[in-house]
Amino acid sequence: MMLTLLADAVEGTTVSADLASTRPRSGRSALRDPRVAGYVLSRTTSKIADQTWVVALALAAAGTGDPRTAALVIAAGTVPRAVLLAVGGSVADRVAARPLLIGADAARVAVLGLGALALLTAPVVPVLVAVGVSFGLVSAFSDPAASTFPRRLVVREELTRVAALLQLGGRAALLVGPPLAGVVLAVADLPGVMLTGAALFTVAALALAFVRPRLPRVHAAREPVVTAVRSAARYVRRTPRVGHLVLALSGLNVFAVPVTTVGLALRVTDEGWGPTTLGFLIGCIGAGAAVGTVLTLRWRPARPVVVGQVVLLAQAGGLASIGFASKQGVIAAVVVVGLTAGIASPLLAGAFQAVVDDPFIGRVASLLAIVDAGLIPLALTGFGALAAVTGLDWACAACGFGMAALMLTGLARRDVAEPSASETSSTG
User: Fold this and answer.
1) Residue 347: CB partners within 8 Å, gap ≥ 6?
2) Whether the domain at 2-209 and the domain at 225-425 fall into the same CATH topology
3) How far apart are CA 191 and CA 392, in angstroms?
4) 225-425 belongs to which CATH class?
């Protein structure tokens, strides 16, 4: 709470004077901006803490020995997040993002600290469920808020770089969080993991407390949540370039996730290549994605949405190839899938930040998250059913065809072509 009040005080007294004196020139790079560095540090540290807790939670849930209890513990945070994401998006469009994000990290610190104390006397499972539910509630509000903050830091031509830096931070969290959880669990058990997570969230909150926004933002009018969500849905439907961006970003996961998780594991099992090969192939996807994301830090195409969609056409070919190519071909295919994802994701995410109007960005981001949360389980189930009926090769080909069809539909529509970087920079 003190951190939130500090952020409110700093923002309320300094932003107005700061806007005129520190508004960035269009040529200023986000790579050399200390405020961007502070924001990326804050978000990365918060994600490391999240990953540390998620892994520890999964291990603790598995240790209960009861599959139903384990499923309950792991699902505890997903349900409240899914239910309240729309509310979180509406709130994110009405209030300043920085106090909300700092408050979210501070709330996680309090929850983990209380959880560590509760484990001294209370049973493990109720404590894990309570912490999981609390984290889900916080994420429902902090995730949409995070989507609104980059536009307060940089002009629009730099948003792709910010998106790339944030995605690199997310990949770093995936590398650091799980092993950190394992080490701390071995040394200090579950309370130690909770206290480690609390320390990391404290660092994230403090880092963000020193990041002053430099650009103004237009907030949404206050209205009932249901009305606000309907307004956002109408906005997406009536704004073709935004609607197609939502479809394209959803397609990144809906068509790719089934092939790179279920499909890849089935192919390795069917061919008898062994778990080492599966780990290597998954590692190739991650490495390719990291390389692709780094490329976007220096490469700023004039038409990022068009380039992103063209790149994803190559990914569609890679997804289809995983089902039938030779071992060497599958290795090449997963590298292509990772590389194209690493390039296209920041380009489309940066375009999303640049194109969606200020009063709607939190709600549209929450709608995208809801679509992802709803469609991916269906896509995984449908992929498995199709592979059982037609074979793995046809199931992978179907995902590749779906990705290609979605991208070609966007490329064929003249009304989704976005303005160039030079045109948007003057409006940042």
Assistant:
1) 160, 296, 301, 304, 305, 307, 308, 311
2) yes
3) 44
4) mainly alpha
CATH 1.20.1250.20 fits 2-209, yes or no: yes
pLDDT at position 136: 92
pLDDT < 50 regions, the chain: 1-27, 417, 419-428
Domain ranges of the chain: 2-209, 225-425
Question: pTM of the full predicted structure?
Answer: 0.85
Give the other-Cβ count within 10 Å of 92's Cβ. 28
Can you give the pLDDT at residue 416? 55
**pLDDT reported for residue 59:** 82
Dihedral sign from CA coordinates of 381, 280, 252, 54: positive
Closest CA to 39 of 215, 196, 177: 215
Q: Is 94 exposed, middle or buried (0-12, 13-18, 19+ CB in 10 A)?
A: middle
- 64-95, pLDDT tens digit by residue? 767 777 778 878 888 888 889 999 999 999 99
Q: Identify whether the C-beta of residue 334 lies closer than 8 Å to the C-beta of residue 264.
A: yes
Question: Contact, 144 vs 363, CB < 8 A?
Answer: yes
